[in-house]
Design goal:
The complex is a heterodimer. By secondary structure, chain A is an alpha+beta fold. Chain A is built from 2 helices and 3 strands, in the order ββαβα. The model of chain B is unreliable at 42-47 (pLDDT under 50). The chains are: A alpha+beta, B alpha+beta.
């Protein structure tokens, strides 16, 4: 099994974007926690399909608004 | 991928660690370090030089050395002074002759962002190497984003 990798992008404004690849579940969260603990404050976190294992599908919220026509 | 997160760095550091980040800022933005005995001419500051102060919000300088030894870098007619304010926060004072306040504020904010970037980069590299993680790639893109790719060995240590 391949080892997990962490893709880190540190923007010129200081914001840090982290993507954990190749791991699932608790291990994935632990790697994200590690980077957070080194860097600072977490603004957002999103679990993607791979987190939940093979075959998983992540549905994102979609807001639908009805238009009322006179 | 399995998780994506966005983080805001917290700069809690000793003055030498800030100095290391400032050196990185100077190198990456074309500034040169001002000599140790350089002092702003206060009369000039009041008359001709405009100055703007930018505070690094999530910062704390853990020693008081900075109060006596601010670090200055220069580029063209612009001087940037890094110091510690009375609350312990890191401040960036940008001054220059013939520049508007808006222009100096933009430069100061850019430099402040780059200081946070350099600090986060050095801290990540140091801590990940201490944990024996492999840094497999480091690149700087055209928009000055630092891209680091790390290989983890199983569970985090």
């Amino acid at each position: 099994m391949s080892q997990p990798e962490i893709d880190i992008r540190i923007g010129a404004d200081g914001k840090v974007h982290v993507r954990v690849e190749g791991s699932q579940g608790e291990q994935c969260m632990a790697l994200a926690d590690l980077i957070r603990d080194i860097v600072g404050v977490e603004e957002s976190r999103e679990k993607t399909a791979e987190y939940f294992g093979p075959g998983a599908v992540v549905y994102r919220h979609a807001e639908a608004r009805l238009r009322h026509h006179p | 991928m399995s998780a994506v997160c966005v983080l805001t760095p917290v700069v809690i550091a000793s003055w030498p660690a800030i100095a290391t980040a400032v050196a990185g800022v100077a190198a990456s933005m074309g500034f040169s370090m001002a000599s140790a005995n350089y002092t702003l001419k206060r009369d000039d500051t009041a008359d001709a030089r405009t100055s703007v102060e930018t505070e690094i919000a999530q910062s704390e300088v853990t020693d008081q050395v900075a109060s006596n030894q601010p670090i200055r870098i220069q580029r063209g007619g612009v001087t940037i002074e890094f110091a510690r304010d009375s609350r312990g926060r890191c401040t960036v004072c940008t001054s220059g002759e013939g520049h508007s306040k808006a222009e100096l504020r933009r430069i100061g904010e850019e430099v402040a962002g780059r200081l946070v970037q350099q600090f986060a980069y050095h801290k990540l590299m140091t801590e990940l190497k201490q944990r024996n993680y492999d840094i497999i790639e480091t690149q700087v893109s055209q928009d000055d984003t630092i891209h680091v790719r790390v290989r983890a060995h199983g569970s985090p240590a």
